[in-house]
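STRUCTURE:
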């Protein structure tokens, strides 16, 4: 949309649908219906909100809380399954594999999560949110 090179690379972790709309078609849509510009702006704002949340997650000093914050963000409000290995979760949380293991053990002891092979099940979103904000 900015007509500049991409700054991010996206990688789908699960089966995903992706739509591509060429810039020329976007321009035509905006020309025929000015409301389209506002709708494209909403998409950009949603992306910005995600990026701000990622920055917030990475600023959390305590590694267990940072890992919990990443889990809460990527699991979303309704879906309680995170299809990631502990190594991948560590990459997203800027944490070592050992820190992830310790954090998940702590969360599992509190019955907040269940850890399975390449999958983490969020049992209680509310408790996870409390844990990640608890000082």
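SEQUENCE:
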């Amino acid at each position: 949309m900015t007509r500049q090179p991409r700054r991010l690379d996206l990688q789908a972790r699960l089966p995903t649908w992706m739509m591509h709309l060429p810039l020329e078609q976007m321009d035509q849509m905006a020309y025929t219906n000015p409301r389209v510009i506002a709708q494209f702006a909403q998409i950009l704002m949603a992306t910005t909100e995600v990026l701000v949340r990622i920055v917030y997650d990475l600023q959390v000093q305590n590694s267990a809380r940072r890992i919990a914050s990443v889990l809460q963000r990527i699991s979303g409000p309704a879906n309680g399954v995170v299809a990631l290995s502990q190594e991948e979760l560590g990459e997203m949380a800027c944490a070592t594999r050992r820190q992830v293991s310790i954090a998940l053990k702590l969360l599992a002891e509190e019955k907040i999560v269940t850890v399975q092979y390449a999958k983490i099940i969020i049992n209680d979103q509310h408790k996870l949110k409390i844990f990640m904000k608890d000082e």
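REMARK: The first strand starts at residue 81 and ends at 82.
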